[in-house]
Automatic annotation (TrEMBL):
Annotated ranges, domain FAD dependent oxidoreductase: 2-346
Organism: Candidatus Terraquivivens tikiterensis
Sample GO molecular function, one term: oxidoreductase activity
Name assigned to this protein: FAD dependent oxidoreductase domain-containing protein
Pfam families the record matches: DAO
CC annotations in GO: cytoplasm
Keyword Ribonucleoprotein: no
PANTHER family: FAD-DEPENDENT OXIDOREDUCTASE DOMAIN-CONTAINING PROTEIN 1, SARCOSINE DEHYDROGENASE-RELATED
Keyword annotations: Oxidoreductase
Signal peptide extent: none
InterPro entries recorded: FAD-dep_OxRdtase (IPR006076), FAD/NAD-bd_sf (IPR036188)
Length: 378
């Protein structure tokens, strides 16, 4: 079976690795720019198991198990930390919904802990809590280094025979007699029996060329990083009021983002003063000791947003045979990638639809079986 994977982000690479590991002999990864140019290495590199939709929590839990074992699989130390996530909640409604969800998380074995403002202050004296009603702490959550996850997958896939071609933009998927026969690039064609579109936020365009319209759209997100400090912010802190998230990165930089109103679409990968000012204000308010901290770097990337904010994987039987997708991960695709790649490889090679994967099939939109996910960060 000749497989073309379009896109060398973490999802394409995890899929390519798993396909090669499960015996696919001819796996080609086509990347329009260079290895992991897209959202993967622009992400905040965090993982969590707490989602409001049970399907997402279950999926993330299994994905995390693979993620933390990746060093023994790929040989790359991905620098896992588990400082947890701390959500700061400001009103009764927010607390109520977290209490309800915590019952579901408890059933899944991933209950978190509610903290009063004084308990937060005791654990994390640097956080301003005067306006906080309660906190929810998820100790199971953490971070790792996105580059080493992606490069590790790439190296492991290459060792098994998968081939990567950079500067190879796929222009369209070629279909004959309702089955995929390859892809077209500016310089020619690559023949294939299977084409997996894992092109992140750019997947919409490739699908539309085939007359397939799934309810997804790219949304640009911005991130900022300050100068480095001694390590002191253990969890990722998510301010439910401003939507800001703030954590500490590998070298000690304060890293984070917050939502600013933006038009959807593939906007230029730039940064705005609006974002920077709002994020800086949110940081100063929550961490008064960071007043005067200097921002060293900003960048932006795309969330591939789906209509229900849950990822999309697999195929619709009405599509040309051999066509698969993995995208629409709405800001949580990095953490889901280890399991997406594994289950998708089984789906492609053995036509197996795992129970954890079934809810995320692209057919859910026309069947009205959405997985509404409201706990999107950033
Ligand atoms: C600011 C920010 C913070 C984030 N933080 C987190 C986080 O903390 N945790 C988390 O789980 N997720 C996070 N995410 C989301 C996460 O980064 C993505 O869900 C994930 O990286 C998606 O991986 P991917 O492989 O699908 O896409 P990408 O990494 O975008 O890779 C797609 C690749 O396809 C290539 N491509 C596109 N079109 C073509 C074409 N026509 N031909 C060939 N190649 C093509 C692109 O160049 C790109 O390299 C964040 C995203 C952003 C933007």
């Amino acid at each position: 079976m000749r497989v073309v994977v379009v896109g060398s982000g973490v999802i394409g690479l995890s899929s390519a690795y798993n396909l090669a590991r499960m015996g696919a002999k001819d796996v080609v990864i086509l990347e329009k720019e260079y290895l992991s140019y897209g959202s993967t290495v622009r992400s905040a590199s965090r993982f969590r198991v707490h989602f409001w939709a049970e399907e997402n929590s279950k999926f993330a839990l299994e994905s995390k198990k693979i993620m933390v074992r990746l060093p023994s699989i790929t040989g790359w130390n991905i620098l896992v930390t588990t400082g947890g996530y701390l959500w700061l909640l400001f009103n009764e409604d927010e607390v109520k919904v977290f209490r309800k969800k915590n019952k579901m998380w408890d059933r899944l074995g991933i209950a978190g802990k509610f903290l009063s403002p004084s308990e937060i202050k005791e654990r994390y004296p640097y956080v301003y809590v005067d306006d906080v009603l309660e906190g929810f702490f998820g100790p199971q959550n953490g971070s790792c280094f996105h580059n080493y996850v992606a490069f590790g997958y790439y190296k492991a896939a290459a060792k098994l025979g998968a081939r990567l071609f950079e500067k190879s933009p796929v222009e369209k998927v070629l279909v004959e007699d309702n089955r995929v026969v390859g892809v077209e690039l500016p310089g020619g064609k690559v023949e294939a029996d299977v084409v997996l579109l894992a092109a992140g936020a750019w997947t919409d365009g490739l699908l539309r060329n085939l007359g397939i319209n799934l309810p997804t759209e790219p949304e640009r997100k911005e991130v900022a990083l300050t100068e480095a400090y001694r390590y002191f912010i253990e969890p990722l802190i998510i301010d439910f009021g401003t939507s800001a998230y703030i954590g500490q990165a590998l070298k000690g930089e304060i890293l984070g983002s917050l939502e600013v109103p933006v038009k959807s679409g593939l906007l230029p990968l730039e940064n705005t003063l609006d974002f920077l000012v709002k994020w800086a204000r949110a940081v100063y308010k929550r961490f008064p000791l960071l007043r005067g901290a200097r921002v060293m770097r900003c960048w932006s990337g795309y969330y591939s947003m789906s209509a229900d904010s849950s990822h999309i994987m697999g195929r619709d039987p009405d599509w040309p045979r051999g066509l698969y997708v993995a995208y629409g991960d709405s800001g949580h695709g990095f953490m889901m990638a280890p399991l997406i790649g594994k289950l998708l490889a089984k789906n492609i090679l053995y036509d197996e639809v795992d129970e954890l994967m079934r809810p995320f099939l692209p057919t859910r939109f026309k069947e009205g079986r959405l997985i509404p996910e409201k706990l999107v960060i950033g």
